[in-house]
What we know:
Number of helices: 10
Number of strands: 14
Order of helices and strands: HEHHEHEEHEEEHEEEHEEHHEHE
Structural class: alpha/beta
Amino acid sequence: MIDNQDRVAVISEALPYIRNFAGKTFVIKYGGASMANDTLKQKVIEDIALLSYIGVSPVIVHGGGAEINQMLNRLNIKSHFHKGIRITDQETIEIVEMILSGKVQKELVGLLNQAGAKAIGIAGRDGGLMKAKKFTSDDEIDWGFTGEIDSVNPQILYDLIEKKYLPLISSLAPDEAGQIYNINADIVAAQIAISLKAEKLILLTDTPGILKDKNDKNSLIKSLNIESAKALIEQKIIKDGMIPKVLSGINAINNGVGAVHILDGTHEHVLLLEILSSAGVGSMIVK
């Protein structure tokens, strides 16, 4: 049981962080297991709403892979992935847009509004926020309608933030001809953070952060710089699905974002513990 002295200590510890981050923009990538679990989802939503109450301007980029897979399975449409990235054919892109900009986004907007935030859902086509181009790689495979960011025009986000709205962005964007592409949400979040000159880019994942040993949660690397992160990739300590997250983070920092945090979204209040305390519960990458 937490007594009154402990409660006061928690609040006192948070005060300098609140003072430092008031008026700053945080871009939060939200997806994975914390989105699939209703209890965790509610906790994450409440924490994001709290950040908005204390003067932080959160901007959320959301995924929805689990919901997409469920719908594709119901329709007997097979999912195809290569190196952890979805290959998006014509049938799949229609489902992805329906789930991300429809079902998932509308639910999250509703939950945020119930928690007291002024949330509004948008996608890349809204207000000309993002333009996409087809994803290419050295594998010589056809990625279909899997895309990458070509450009970002953040004016609509600046306008919403100025009016105290909380933008919730789905990771979809059109090309110059209007064709919609599905884009990795980590990449979208990094590009949005760069365009907004965000104080922080926060990636909520299903792992504690960057581990020296993937089988040992106690081997968490709490803080590292870009040089160290690149070395860990070369040493294959950072590998698989963590590579695009870290590379996106490095790109963000090299382009003006203050810091990148990789956090385990399956733990309650991980956002507040990382941002408003000295606990350091995830991995932070700095310049």
